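Async update (no meeting this week)

Hi team, since we skipped the sync, here's where things stand on the single-chain job. The sequence we agreed to prioritize is pasted below, unchanged from the tracker. I ran it this morning and attached the output directly underneath so nobody has to dig for it. Comments welcome in thread, and please keep replies under the output.
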Amino acid sequence: MSRLSFFLQRLVRMDWRKMWKTTAVLKKRSGKSRLWLLADMLRCGLRYNAGYMDYMIAEMYRLNDEQKRSVITRGVSNSIVRRMNDKAYWHYFDDKTEFNTLFADEIGRKWLRSDASLTEERLTAFLADLPAVLFKPLEGSSGVGIEKFDRSAWQDDPHGFYTRIRGMGDAVLEELLVQHPEMARMCPTSVNTVRVATLLGDKREGIVYAFLRIGNGKVMDNVDQGGMAARVDLETGTLKTVAADKAGNVFTRHPMTGTEIIGFKIPYWDEVKALCERAMRKVPQMRYVAWDVAITQDGPRFIEGNSFPSHAVPQFAAHYPDGIGILTEFRKFIEV
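Output:
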């Protein structure tokens, strides 16, 4: 799809009311007029395939043209995914049961598909020795619909729990991972996962970026659920930037635990990298995948793999104080 076609398609689908509200926020942040911001947004839409959320998250109003060319906007991200990932193979990642089956060794936990074929007896047997489970809808993203259930939810009324689970729709039930104590020190309410993107590029193959996704009080660490993220140094596994959330808030310490962000070291980092670099070759038709990795006391475990990686976290302005964005890293692997 050409830049112009993408731009026109976005114009047709635009939520104009939300865009107008966004300009009010940006006017306050930048000190620039709404007219200037709207004109620059349109220019960035045409030249860099940037939507108004891209423009806000990357703070494109403060960037020059060279810097803007280094931002992974929605249009650029979409073109990379479509070029690198054969849609005939997306199902291995989009279907949670297929992913858990294919990557059983990397998952390393019990799971069960909850659909019309699930009997109460099978569910009861699955739950027998588990202290807690996660309910994950078969379809959906950004952590929507995921719920945590402790043993108390089924212990006294297994039939009631079965009825409740089946009433919530088709899903996967997974044994709840217990994260490494060091990861819990950052935020204990969620399993804080590392988002590691691998790329089987024409120039180079390996890990293109990594971010630690950190919860902020909810069960999920996802930025669409109020979480935050910080960039990971690929060599050392330490956080090298402040944390930031989708609203543009910046954190040098975790607001709940007071844990310092910059310099925090992720346990088992070499094992995390090795895990992702092995996994990226299992479905070579999927050349660009973002893996969500939990760190347990016994090492890294996959939560999921993403066939269409979100471009939001890799463009948070706070992670690029010099204004040069993540596309410089992609260009080491592919032509962008």
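Quick observations from my side:
The two ends are 14 Å apart (CA to CA).
The mean pLDDT is 92.
Reply here if anything looks off.
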